[in-house]
């Protein structure tokens, strides 16, 4: 999935804010002494576009120090987050995002920050090895996946008409499928070791929290097998019936003795499932 191209914010401020001293912190010991706010911004953006991220951050921090509590400082904070993100200084970027959201919760570009926050946690959840070899998706860091999911959910819930909503929605589908697969991995682990109650609980977690994902059929299958192994035929049949209704062509139904898909009772519980392309 391709990430949207992130943008450098070029918020225009009045000339007085850009050129004023703003703060008495500027001294001759400051290597940027004598530079106006506009000059600092221009130099920072020039270095940012040239991938000299560390130097760009220095210019933005100079703006924050000399022109605090101004729109210029807000812009510098935003661009510094962007620079840290592309320099893979993820801790600094996340720290800047948290600070900005706390200080300016109603800023017009808050959705952009949640978007970067989601991308960072998504990227950090994968190891270098995963980027070289096909990853075992069930072993990806789940906490950071959940954090990433939470950021994208904020975007679609609070900013549904924003620039990042469509891409965030696609990533939500992908992440929910990924997290569901991780739970299935645990459920299979328990099933293989005859820890049937654990397998049932992990499968139920998928059904409760990750409905409409590609792992629902496997969760139902695991429950059917585990309930059978525990000698609970009624509960097993309930899971099998839901599996048959929603996934009539699932090859695993043969393990329960079904060669075709007859109708099931009308009072059977049904889970509606939608398959998504990742």
TrEMBL record:
Domain Outer membrane lipoprotein BamD-like: 36-239
This protein's record includes keyword Metal-binding: no
Domain of life: Bacteria
Pfam families reported in the protein's UniProt record: YfiO (PF13525)
Entry membrane topology: Lipid-anchor
Location within or outside the cell: Cell outer membrane
CDD domains the UniProt entry points to: BamD (cd15830)
Main location: membrane
Alphabetical UniProt keywords: Cell outer membrane, Lipoprotein, Membrane, Palmitate, Signal
Signal peptide annotation: 1-26
Role noted for this protein: Part of the outer membrane protein assembly complex, which is involved in assembly and insertion of beta-barrel proteins into the outer membrane.
Alphabetized NCBIfam families for the sequence: OM_YfiO
Family membership noted in the UniProt record: Belongs to the BamD family.
Assembly: Part of the Bam complex.
Protein name: Outer membrane protein assembly factor BamD
Organism: Ignatzschineria larvae DSM 13226
């Amino acid at each position: 999935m391709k990430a949207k191209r992130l943008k450098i914010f070029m918020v225009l401020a009045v000339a007085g804010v850009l050129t004023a001293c703003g703060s008495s912190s500027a001294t001759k010991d400051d290597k940027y002494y004598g530079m106006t706010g506009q000059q600092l911004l221009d130099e920072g953006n020039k270095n940012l576009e040239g991938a000299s991220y560390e130097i760009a951050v220095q210019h933005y921090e100079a703006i924050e120090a000399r022109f605090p509590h101004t729109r210029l400082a807000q812009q510098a904070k935003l661009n510094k987050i962007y620079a840290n993100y592309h320099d893979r200084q993820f801790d600094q970027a996340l720290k800047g995002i948290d600070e900005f959201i706390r200080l300016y919760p109603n800023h017009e570009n808050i959705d952009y920050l949640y978007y970067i926050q989601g991308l960072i946690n998504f990227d950090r959840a994968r190891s270098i090895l995963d980027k070289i070899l096909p990853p075992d998706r069930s072993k990806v860091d789940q906490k950071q996946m959940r954090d990433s999911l939470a950021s994208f959910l904020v975007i679609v819930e609070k900013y549904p008409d924003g620039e990042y909503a469509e891409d965030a929605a696609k990533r939500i589908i992908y992440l929910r499928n990924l997290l569901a697969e991780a739970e299935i991995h645990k459920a299979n682990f328990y099933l293989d070791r005859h820890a049937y109650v654990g397998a049932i609980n992990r499968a139920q977690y998928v059904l409760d929290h990750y409905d409409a994902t590609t792992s629902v059929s496997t969760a139902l299958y695991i429950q059917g097998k585990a309930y059978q192994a525990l000698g609970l035929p009624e509960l097993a049949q309930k899971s099998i019936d839901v599996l048959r209704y929603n996934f009539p062509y699932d090859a695993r139904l043969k393990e329960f003795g079904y060669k075709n898909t007859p109708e099931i009772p009308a009072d059977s519980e049904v889970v509606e499932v939608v398959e998504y392309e990742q």
